[in-house]
């Protein structure tokens, strides 16, 4: 391995300016949902330059949009292609998918950004901008790892399938389309921003809406009404109990240091129309975490049953049951065995490069990894160079040193995992 | 009195169709805020027909809009006149103001109305429509009472000042303008929909807004954030304690059967922007009831102090104090002595006509009566024929029998209060 490592290190070290430029270019193309085309064009150009076999297509069709795991606010993806670049192996080696999403979340309130979120400013060894950490930095590192191998003249045995997908931030329709198109490998790595931690567990999630009824009255005689706020507080307390119940079942040691492995978050609370009236409706919207071993449907059923049971505590809910709706995004949970070869390979290389053992943790959020696991039946690890804390926030950035170190780890993992053809 | 009573009764009985038609016409003109002109045109025509001295003006000017009790979302009232019609007395009698507002609240969701809210449908002795009960029915009854006296050839000693004002539903700028213009009388009757109860106390009210902060985090690690919903629930509980404290101070026997004499109602609760994020802000909007003996400023001060004290229970509020704002409408509380001559006069006549004692209660809401009491220093009674329960609601109606009975009581009260010139 050492002979390869020196070559890889040297190539990456020499090509830092090139990698940094690629990242900046990608950040400068604002690839929010529906606007991924220009970023993908840069990826396509890079894959061409590297001599990869390229597949470009706009997802769609009934097999995709009617799939039970399809979630997106849109059904047509014109101008939003998936891009796949394959580095063909010589054969007989283990294949791998390196999957990164090209879509980014909106920048939010620009006033809160120190720099233009789409300028790709480089300051003190960091590149700032929306998508730098989540996850264009990771994508660039994947491409650098592959290019380092090619440039070093190393011929891998297994295929390396690089996927630049759309729609991860909206529930994974891009990755689902790639799986349905038949892309398959012996393992998957996704460079979501994990602060270089290795995540063999991914929390899934779904969005729910609870509609809670009250009965209106004039505020001056509020005792003649029933406040939907009071009833909604009852519902919130009931949900907290469900959260406790659900988390008490989690006994995977990877979760032992996590205060709430699969939290239920109430993110929005809205209701009432007039300060002088007793509110007759409150709408709660939230996210329920889904454990790696759970099925989305089972969680929905448990939630509905729990909500129905509230009427045994307060008879108001007999006549006015809480209405539960599932809406918007969902992320499928995922899991890989801790002793899986991909975990071993990645951990060994990590230790070699970083001279310390990797932190292995359960992920508090979902990624496209769940789709690979549940739909594609492919063992998947989430591991990336981005900074968890700044993803989706103003002043998002990535540390360039980490990005290049990550590229080295990936290159060496590919060598270990896919195997190298002896060129004698 | 009996000789007058027969004449009055007869005239009212003969003129029921005319009175009913006037009410329907008024309901058919949708006089929501800013659209009072066409309803007032009908009132003006009626006052002309009755030979009253008429004063019509669009309120405005710095004395009004800079007045500490001025509350309105607008400062200009073009097309929204106040109308006053005076039945001059012969002199030496007690004068009275009969004050009714011409503005109505919006009809809300039309789907919930059995009839068109602006058709003035008459069914089973009731007239349906927005404003029928609150309070065009009352206004029509006042005019009928005056017309009955005129038509019966009864000459009163004191002036009867009929006021058809705008803006009651938005905080009383119409009545405030009439007071500031110099209209003054020895007593005031306001025919708000009291179900024929006599209200010598009026609860005032103000609207407050509490802005409660949290700290955002991803829902998958919600324990890293501080939910503004949780903190807002704490604030709501704290407000409930203030309500208990404030109501414990009320010892007026008129409130003894009222569960909460001066309630605090939370009417709206809004916050959070994303199901998967811990909400970082919740806005509560509500109405605080103000006791008849309280000053608005004192209540504001007590509320602010109480909100500041929450930090002694939860240190979060030390760094993140609840922001309190006062906004929108306010109604000044009002009170008249139970032994005041106007109360005696009204009660005596009521007993004579209805053959039972009137129900005398404290009003759970504010009216323009507070302005008459606090700014105009005029003793005011709220007493009207409308149906309390349907005010501001779909399918608002008034019972015609009650309206005409009320007109009789008012006519006889005017005779008693203002005195009659002996026509020998």
From TrEMBL, chains A, B:
Keyword list, A-Z: Cobalt, Hydrolase, Metal-binding, Zinc
InterPro entries xrefs: ArgE/DapE (IPR010182), Bact_exopeptidase_dim_dom (IPR036264), Peptidase_M20 (IPR002933), Peptidase_M20_dimer (IPR011650), Peptidase_M20A (IPR050072)
The keyword Transmembrane is assigned to this record: no
Keyword Cell wall biogenesis/degradation: no
Domain Peptidase M20 dimerisation: residue ranges: 202-310
Cofactor(s) essential for the protein: Co(2+); Zn(2+)
Short name of one Pfam family: Peptidase_M20
The family this protein is said to belong to: Belongs to the peptidase M20A family.
NCBIfam families, per the entry: DapE-ArgE (TIGR01910), PRK06915.1 (NF005373)
PANTHER family cross-referenced by the UniProt entry: ACETYLORNITHINE DEACETYLASE, PEPTIDASE M20 DIMERISATION DOMAIN-CONTAINING PROTEIN
Protein name: Peptidase
Species per Swiss-Prot/TrEMBL record: Litchfieldia luteola
Lineage of source species: Bacteria, Bacillati, Bacillota, Bacilli, Bacillales
């Amino acid at each position: 391995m050492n002979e390869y490592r020196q070559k890889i290190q040297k190539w990456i070290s020499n090509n830092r300016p090139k990698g940094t430029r690629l990242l900046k270019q990608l950040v400068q193309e604002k690839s929010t949902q529906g606007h991924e085309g220009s970023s993908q064009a840069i990826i396509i150009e890079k894959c061409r330059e590297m001599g990869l076999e390229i597949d470009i297509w706009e997802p769609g069709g009934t097999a995709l949009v009617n799939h039970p795991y399809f979630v997106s606010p849109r059904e047509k993806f014109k101008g939003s292609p998936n891009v796949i670049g394959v580095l063909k192996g010589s054969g007989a080696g283990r294949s791998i998918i390196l999957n990164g999403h090209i879509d980014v979340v909106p920048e939010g309130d620009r006033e809160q950004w120190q720099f233009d979120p789409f300028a790709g400013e480089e300051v003190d060894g960091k590149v700032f901008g929306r998508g730098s950490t989540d996850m264009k930095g990771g994508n660039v590192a994947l491409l650098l790892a592959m290019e380092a191998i090619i440039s070093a003249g190393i011929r891998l045995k297994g295929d390396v399938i690089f996927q630049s997908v759309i729609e991860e931030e909206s529930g994974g329709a891009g990755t689902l389309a790639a799986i349905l198109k038949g892309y398959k490998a012996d393992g998957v790595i996704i460079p979501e921003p994990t602060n270089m931690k290795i995540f063999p567990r991914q929390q899934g999630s779904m969005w729910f809406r609870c509609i809670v009824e009250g009965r209106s009255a004039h505020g001056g005689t509020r005792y003649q009404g029933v406040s939907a706020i009071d009833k909604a507080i009852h519902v919130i307390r009931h949900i907290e109990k469900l959260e406790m119940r659900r988390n008490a079942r989690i006994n995977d040691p990877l979760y032992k240091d996590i205060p709430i492995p699969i939290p239920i978050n109430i993110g929005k609370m809205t209701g009432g129309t007039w300060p002088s009236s007793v509110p007759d409706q409150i709408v709660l919207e939230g996210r329920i975490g889904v454990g790696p071993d759970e099925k989305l449907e089972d969680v929905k059923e448990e939630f509905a049953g729990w909500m129905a049971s509230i009427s045994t505590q307060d008879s108001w809910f007999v006549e006015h049951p809480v209405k539960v709706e599932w809406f918007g995004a969902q992320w499928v949970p995922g899991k890989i065995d801790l002793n899986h070869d991909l975990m071993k390979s990645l951990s060994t290389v990590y230790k070699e490069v970083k001279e310390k053992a990797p932190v292995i943790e359960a992920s508090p959020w979902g990624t496209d990894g769940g789709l690979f696991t549940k739909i594609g039946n492919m063992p998947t690890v989430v591991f990336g160079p981005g900074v968890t804390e700044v993803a989706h926030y103003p002043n998002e950035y990535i540390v360039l040193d980490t990005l290049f170190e990550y590229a080295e780890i990936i290159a060496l993992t590919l060598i270990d995992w896919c195997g190298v053809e002896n060129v004698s």
